[in-house]
Records
---
Amino acid sequence: MPDHAPQPVDRQLPTDEARDLISLVRDIAQREIAPKAAEEEDAGHFPRDVFTLLSESGLLGLPYDSEYGGGDQPYEVYLQVLEELAAARITVGLGVSVHSLSCHALAHYGTKEQQVEHLPTMLGGGLLGAYCLSEPSSGSDAASMRTKAVRDGEDWVLTGTKAWITHGGIADFYTVFARSGGEGTRGITAFLVPGDAEGLSVAAPEKKMGMKGSPTAQVHFDGVRISDDRRIGDEGQGFAIALSALDSGRLGIAACAIGVAQAALDEAVAYAIGREQFGRRIADFQGLRFMLADMATQIEAGRALYLTAARLRDAGRPFSKQAAMAKLLCTDAAMKVTTDAVQVLGGYGYTADFPVERYMREAKVLQIVEGTNQIQRMVIARHLAGPESR
């Protein structure tokens, strides 16, 4: 019988350095991440050792400037690294994406002095970041946040609660958005808060249907005092900074979604080739062959869209609409592909003996995080038809 083991994705990469980078990531994924993924996810274990290894390998700061410890890689390369990591374990792929998101504000809006002081350890010093925008009463409506930042001399005092924070409780630093002025989008400011700041505490992690190895928790700020040199950007600029970061972060979610979908397809194809019913491989039945073909097509379409958006970003062109499109298409595709993978495996697909049920549970959250897919449709429609009439 021919070897039908899943073949690596045939990637279009811009340089030999990028090809070597993907080879390194695949090696780490196969040796250090994938073999332990199912067991550690079931146990709710966060693989901090893997993130330490990724940091030591230069993989936590890929899209940032090498002057500060980054990898100088274009977004089209960075996103394909995320896809490879997410295919091995979504906790790792999404964790790298969130870490990169948490570095965005300082890397793009911080002062030279702030960047010199903080970015090297954030990007390559073994630290892990978290991004604090959502709150218990403000998710999609982020502009209605209630966490306050009050000026006190040369310091700021932060009070409030952030919700749904990936890496809550284990992060070394938090990029926090808080209301420093009046209502609306212009009264919000960004801050870089150390994970061990006095007055910062974390609630018990949420009990989730998937991604159990990635802690998601509320983060409480009870009079957390930080100096003004940890304010990022101008006062009142925070909401614009947050949206800028999310445009890039949504591409990270899109890439992770395609990684999960690819892993599910690989598992479904391998099973369909090896499983026999009625004297034939189930892969020989037309209905199932068409299902596999549709799954593969959705993955290729999603990958092409997120790479198109990434190349716009790399070229310095507007990409917000395409980022929303990519997040929408790729995460919906991941949900469909992983659900179909469970169907291909039948009863076995519904058991924890095979990974496709885990992929399906994990895919669902990708339609929600960093802007629900309903929000993505609103963003896309505004680019097409302008703001909604009031």
---
Amino acid sequence: MSSVAFETQRAALADVVAIPVTPFAEDGSVARETHRALLRRLLDGGITTLTPNGNTGEFYALTPEERRLVTELTIDEAGDRAVVLVGVGHDVPTAVASARHARELGAGMVMVHQPVHPYVSQAGWVDYHRAIAEAVPELGVVPYIRNAQLTGARLAELADTCPNVIGVKYAVPDAARFAAFARDAGLERFVWVAGLAEPYAPSYFSAGATGFTSGLVNVAPAVSLNMIEALRSGDYPAAMKVWEQIRRFEELRAANGSADNVTVVKEALASLGLCRREVRPPSRTLLEEQRVEVAAIAAGWSI
């Protein structure tokens, strides 16, 4: 399948790539109707790329059945309004089964989570992604890279055998390393998505990214869209004005090794009456003092 066939998917990656939360009901199960309502809010807010089963969706805290449910709800709700990039991972058979499930439902792409195995060799990284990409040649495949040791040459090697590897979610917090990695892999060959969201988007765009992921978008779609519009037009001062607006919110998410990454987003949504604040272990709800601060930030965005 030629890269031309993935034009829609490539365009969808060069955008705000939303990572929806997975809201929970009082009994701890996935709150289906709330989930649908949050997805509709994103779609109505102008978001056209959705990633069910991303880290902001608590991928690693969901059961296999719940991951399938989240995929089904998202694809059903998105319809023809958005391109869906389904997060897959764990062992190879599990990731392949998830990717095939996404394909059957009509998803356009899968994002392959960074392997969580404690021993990841670079050649093994290629093998892992190749096994998944070859199982779903019709889908665009987007590796999620958090491994600073991985070289751009390895990504190029993967894409040589798997032309459906069309984009990269790069989430190593080092703009210089990203710039080098993208050029070693092939700057024009892939769509580069800044995988560390709005705080890193300006620096990564200056080095070649054309999209960024976002968890904040759950709370304030307009804020994320303001940033990408500024970046697309090369207006870095305007992008940094948005950066200043979201700085404290993102600092709270990033504190203590990103311990409250999802928690802060859900707390903001709870303060707006949009979903429950509960997260699953190993995440934890915020202390009262932090809740007040998050609510004030969310209210300040006047959603």
